[in-house]
Design a protein that fits this description.
There is one protein chain. By secondary structure, the protein is α/β, with parallel strands linked by helices. The chain has 2 domains: about 5-135, 3-Layer(aba) Sandwich (Rossmann fold), CATH 3.40.50; about 135-335, Dihydrodipicolinate Reductase, domain 2. Helices cover about 35% and strands about 25% of the residues. It contains 13 helices and 17 strands. It has helices spanning about 15-25, 45-55, 65-75, 90-100, 115-125, 140-150, 185-190, 190-200, 325-330, 340-360, 370-390, 395-400, 410-415; strands at about 5-10, 35-40, 60-65, 80, 100-105, 130-135, 155-165, 205-210, 215-220, 240, 250-255, 260-270, 275-280, 285, 300, 305-310, 395. A 9-stranded mixed β-sheet has the order 16-15-14-13-7-12-11-8-17. A hairpin with a 4-residue loop joins β11 and β12 (about 260-270). The longest helix has 22 residues, at about 340-360.
Length: about 425
């Protein structure tokens, strides 16, 4: 199988996570990607990732601190995987397109909607593929949840609830995720929720919301971080930081289908954390399956007991996972799986890589293209703008930059 020559740009914690995804793909029978370069402004980060790549993949990629130099030294390079912090996404992606490369970009697509629009303009000029690395929807349990909704198992959806509260005053993952001008958690984490709402329930017309910054001082967690991916940089993290990004969102969502939604997300909840998603329809309710934990969806119908696990498969006889997902997770049809978070995480990242190369080779559009990535961002920013303007805000006006009061100071700092 012909392999896509690819570079990872941004060799910190997320770059390391993506490298583990490449290892999963390399070990499969469907590998269509070859890592040939690693690029980071911090050479020590790029060298570290290259060392890990040699250990995991059997070949050390070339190391660079500058993409233009990488283009000269690796003329066969066709694509880059952007795993920098969100602030760097739009300048790096635009530069990559101008250098003639295809792009896989971590979420959120950019720090602001204007930045996302600049990426889309650069992509149109280049005529290259742009894929946004939204991995939640690729989980087999998310695919099964979507199949149950599409099959009308709970009837017409009336109400969608997405509520999650945790973290208290701890630093979540890394300090920059609490800075408004770097991409706060309501964007960096919330864009996952936004993408899943759009995936499950269809397009959103408008949002009415309020956001708050409750915890202005945050403290280093002593309990580790997501999957241990960022431990190498733990010593660099300060004991406390001053937060500037809002940490709590409460919103009402109006879906184009007429379904009502309520999205509450807080990273300032002390005590016992809470998290729940549920769809209420005309015939019953559906709790979506877990993400990276293999927990089965749960259906409750008006005239039946709880339905979960393998019994769900009888409700969707045509449900089947695509070839790469089935190989990595072990079955075409499943209603649950058992594996650790890191293992599931790297399998989903492997699927993103496989899809990118497949789209380039076969002139196909990725599932989460730039327009889908921008739409998920617009859902987040609609909440931020609604709170700033104290009125409902549509996603269309966000994408068209007809309103942008909340992001104005970020755009000014970025020179956009």
């Amino acid at each position: 199988m012909e392999k896509l020559p690819l570079a990872i740009v941004g060799c910190g914690g997320m770059g390391g996570r993506h490298l583990l995804g490449l290892k999963e793909l390399y070990d499969s029978s469907l590998n269509n990607v070859e890592l040939v370069a690693a690029c980071d402004l911090r050479r020590d980060n790029a060298e570290h990732l290259a060392d890990e790549a040699e250990r995991l993949l059997g070949r050390r990629p070339a190391v660079f601190q500058d993409m233009a130099e990488m283009a000269c030294q690796v003329p066969d390079l066709q694509a880059v995987d952007i795993t920098t912090d969100a602030r760097a996404h739009h300048p790096v992606a635009c530069a990559a397109f101008d250098l003639g490369w295809h792009v896989l970009c971590e979420k959120p697509m950019a720090l602001t909607v204007r930045g996302a629009n600049r990426i889309l303009e650069a992509q149109r000029r280049a005529g290259k593929v742009l894929s946004i690395a939204e991995n939640y929807r690729r989980d087999p349990m998310s695919r099964l949840t979507r199949a149950l909704l599409d099959a009308g198992v709970i009837g017409t959806p009336y109400l969608f609830l997405d509520i999650s509260c945790s973290a208290g005053n701890r630093i979540v993952i890394t300090p920059w995720r609490h800075q408004k001008n770097m991409g706060g958690m309501l964007l960096d984490g919330g864009v996952h929720n936004a993408d899943m709402m759009l995936y499950y329930m269809g397009d959103v017309q408008q949002v009415f919301a309020e956001i708050r910054l409750w915890e202005r001082t945050r403290y280093k967690s002593r309990g580790g971080n997501v999957g241990g991916f960022y431990e190498r940089w733990a010593a660099e993290m300060p004991d406390s930081i001053t937060a500037t990004a809002e940490d709590t969102l409460v919103s009402v969502i109006h879906f184009a289908s007429g379904t009502m939604g309520q999205w509450t997300q807080s990273y300032a909840a002390h005590g016992q954390g809470f998290g729940r998603r549920v769809v209420f329809g005309s015939r019953g309710s559906l709790i979506p399956g877990g993400t990276r934990n293999g927990i089965s969806p749960v259906v409750h119908l008006d005239d039946r007991q709880e339905i979960t696990g393998d019994a769900l498969l009888a409700l969707v006889p045509d449900f089947a996972l695509d070839t790469i997902t089935a190989e990595l997770f072990g079955s075409k049809r499943m209603a649950s799986y058992s594996m650790s978070f890191p293992e599931a995480d790297r399998k989903l990242l492997a699927i993103e890589y496989y899809e990118l190369a497949d789209c380039i080779a076969n002139a196909k559009a990725p599932e989460v293209d730039g327009l889908a990535g921008r739409r998920a961002m617009a859902l987040c920013y609609a909440g931020f703008e609604s709170s700033t303007l104290n009125r409902p805000v549509t996603l269309d006006e966000i994408e068209a930059e007809e309103t942008g009061a909340y992001e104005a100071e970020i755009n000014a700092e970025l020179g956009l």
